[in-house]
Amino acid sequence: xxxxxxxxxxxxxxxxxxxxxxxxxxxxxxxxxxxxxxxxxxxxxxxxxxxxxxxxxxxxxxxxxxxxxxxxxxxxxxxxxxxxxxxxxxxxxxxxxxxxxx
Length: 102
Description:
Blueprint: E1 5-15, E2 20-30, H1 33-49, E3 54-64, H2 86-93
Antiparallel strand pairs: 1-2, 1-3
């Protein structure tokens, strides 16, 4: 049997009435990326059932953490190759002006 590791899994949802997409990162112990994603997607469907008109758009990414969750521990990371300047990159992928924060 494999040893379990901690994984952060990002799933994307669409809130139809609000006209917004949501990215959620949840933490899981699992023996593989596939198992972590499977567990996160099961939770994603439960999340949708608890809310009105929210759908899981069937997109997930997993990140295997080094060690245990704790203060300052990286829980998710994505790298993209891109030739944009730092400001252009942030505007394109993060600070588009259409974000909503709680």
